């Protein structure tokens, strides 16, 4: 009965949003964001930045250094870095704080336009100025343990359909093998570079791609998103920063 209910929910969601579970897709101005989250401020998440294109919030990102941010590689499927604006230090994605243009994006050579090796390391066109509302975040050296409570934040549209208010939510890390059992179709393959987190009908969705997943003040992942969002009653997919950390550090050093 539970499986039938889950299938019915998925069918209704797919019918309503016109998307497919079998293929990832990113569309401008589409979908939901932090669902059933809490109002928050940038002071609580000073490492967080928004990425916008043509006056629409597109993705979230995390500040690593004065010239570097990290986000979901899907964010650059249809746009170039020069078309995006990074905004940091503001509770709003479209005003206040610092607006910074982007210059170049780097991907792992193994990245094949899917969830595995999904990391976009982006260099800004000018240095980000740090202050109490703008701070870098450290990269996690290991994954949180199963069941750990982690925090995700972003500006995506809420369950009420409103857009622009910064929200956060706490979710729990899900055992990778258990998560694999929740995805009965062959896509995606959950490698060590992908981890799962879940709380019933709580978490990010479209427009929150790249939203940072934080544990004990370190970046443990970011939302991989696409078709897997809080409206579906399955764990959500995040990158595993601990297993991408070496590539991120090496790439920043070389560039």
UniProtKB/TrEMBL annotation:
Keywords: Disulfide bond, Hydrolase, Protease, Serine protease, Signal. One of its GO terms (molecular function) is serine-type endopeptidase activity. GO terms for biological process: proteolysis. Belongs to the peptidase S1 family. The keyword Repeat does not apply. The lineage of its organism: Eukaryota, Metazoa, Ecdysozoa, Arthropoda, Hexapoda. It comes from Clastoptera arizonana (Arizona spittle bug). The keyword Signal applies. Gene3D superfamilies: Trypsin-like serine proteases (2.40.10.10). PANTHER family: FI18310P1-RELATED (PTHR24276:SF98), POLYSERASE-RELATED (PTHR24276). Residues 1-22 form the signal peptide. This is Peptidase S1 domain-containing protein. SUPFAM superfamilies: Trypsin-like serine proteases.
């Amino acid at each position: 009965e539970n499986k039938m209910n889950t299938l019915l929910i998925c069918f209704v969601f797919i019918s309503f949003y016109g998307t497919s579970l079998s293929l990832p897709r990113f569309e401008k101005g589409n979908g939901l964001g932090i669902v059933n989250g809490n109002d928050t401020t940038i002071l609580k998440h000073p490492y967080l930045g928004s990425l916008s294109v043509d006056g629409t919030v597109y993705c979230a990102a995390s500040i690593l250094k004065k010239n570097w941010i990290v986000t979901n590689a899907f964010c650059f499927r249809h746009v170039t870095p020069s078309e995006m604006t990074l905004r940091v230090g503001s509770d709003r994605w479209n005003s206040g704080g610092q607006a910074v243009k982007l210059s170049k994006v780097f991907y792992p050579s193994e990245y094949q336009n899917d969830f595995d090796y999904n990391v976009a390391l982006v260099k800004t066109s000018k240095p980000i100025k740090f202050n109490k509302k703008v701070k870098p975040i450290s990269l996690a050296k290991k994954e949180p343990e199963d069941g750990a409570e982690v925090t995700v934040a972003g500006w995506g549209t809420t369950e009420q359909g409103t857009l622009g208010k910064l929200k956060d939510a706490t979710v729990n890390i899900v055992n990778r093998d258990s998560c694999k059992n929740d995805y009965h179709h062959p896509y995606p393959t959950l490698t060590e570079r992908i981890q799962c987190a879940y709380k019933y009908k709580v978490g990010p969705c479209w427009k929150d791609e790249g939203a940072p997943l934080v544990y004990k003040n370190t970046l443990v992942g970011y939302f991989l998103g696409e078709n897997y969002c809080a409206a579906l009653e399955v764990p959500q997919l995040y990158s595993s920063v601990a297993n991408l950390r070496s590539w991120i550090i090496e790439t920043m050093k070389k560039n």
